[in-house]
Amino acid sequence: MTPASHALSAIDACVHGFVLTELNLSFGTDAGVEEFVGEIQDQLSPDAIRIWPS
Q1: Cα dihedral sign for 29, 48, 24, 18?
Q2: Tens digits of per-residue pLDDT, 5-42?
């Protein structure tokens, strides 16, 4: 493969991954984000949450 082919493949993979993420994690409002993060925090142990700053 030529360097241009590698570059195009990398860009395509990044764009495809970004689009899939946006489609699967799209939120209509900020409240949706807070709810999503709250659900993840509920699944984590208290020690893990304490490590991450708010």
Answers
A1: positive
A2: 999 999 998 888 888 887 777 666 676 778 888 888 78
